[in-house]
Amino acid sequence: IWPDPGAMSSEAGKQICEDEYAFDISLRLGRELLKHGAIVHFITEDKDGIRDNEILNCDSDETVSGKVIPKDQTERLIQRSDLINALYKKYKNKGVDYQRTIEIHVDSRNKNQRVDLFFYYFPESTIGRSLAAVLHKTVKSKYDIYRKHDDYSGTISGRDLHVLREVIPTTVFIELANIQNAADRQRVIQPKNRQLLAEWLAEGLLKDY
Predict the structure, then answer these.
(1) Which of 72-86, 89-103, 139-153, 190-204 has the lowest mean pLDDT?
(2) Long-range Cβ pairs for the range 179-183 (8 Å, 24+)
(3) Calpha distance 89→82 (Å, rounded)
(4) Measuring CA to CA, how many Å separate 181 from each of 18, 63, 76, 126, 185?
(5) Sorting pLDDT into bands at 50, 70 and 90, what band is 2?
(6) Residues 32-41: pLDDT tens digits?
(7) Average pLDDT of the residues in 148-163
(8) Helix orientation angle between 182-189 and 18-34, rounded to the nearest 10 degrees
(9) Among residues 52, 57, 56, which one has the least CA distance to residue 192?
(10) CA–CA separation, 1 vs 63, rounded Å?
(11) Average of pLDDT values for 42-62?
(12) Residues 131, 170: contact at Cβ < 8 Å?
């Protein structure tokens, strides 16, 4: 397993890793945005494409723009933020003003705790807060349709995380589920749910644009 597989758990007796599910949903989100003419870059790359399996095997073939991912966590964060900033400047010089970074993650909490999607933005970014609010509202509206009998408890909050503080484009950090909770895991385990999440997030981004 590479230096940062993220949160880990097990499903059907097999080990599962956050990064595999986050990457699959990121690919699906990118595909939806491409349909609308967006330019999409995946900062962390994986040889695996979109997969319709429930169990996505943990592996170690991830890179950042073809480069080896450092073992040191701080170096990993800097590697990613430097690449994002370089891409931002490249497109800014071409006259592209609307640029957004979306960080997709799967949280790890007590196995008895269920969570809905929650969104982080940099506390000093009013645009980041606005984007998080649009995404949150969009997901909540979908929950009102697909999960009518449960209140949506997802939240929006400011956090001073490296990726929110150090990157130039407006960024929202999204936690999709608690990988330790068996029921919550189904939000990312089930391929149809991964596709729905991608579609909902894409819809929110298009509204923001």
Answers:
(1) 139-153
(2) 179/7, 179/8, 179/9, 179/16, 179/18, 179/106, 179/107, 179/108, 180/7, 180/9, 180/108, 180/109, 180/110, 180/111, 180/113, 181/109, 181/111, 181/112, 181/113, 181/114, 181/115, 182/111, 183/114
(3) 11
(4) 13, 29, 28, 33, 6
(5) low
(6) 999 999 999 9
(7) 91
(8) 40
(9) 52
(10) 12
(11) 93
(12) yes
Beta pairing partners, 64: 44, 67
Name the nearest CA neighbour of 9 among 150, 196, 186, 197: 186
Q: What integer pLDDT is reported at residue 119 of this predicted model? A: 98
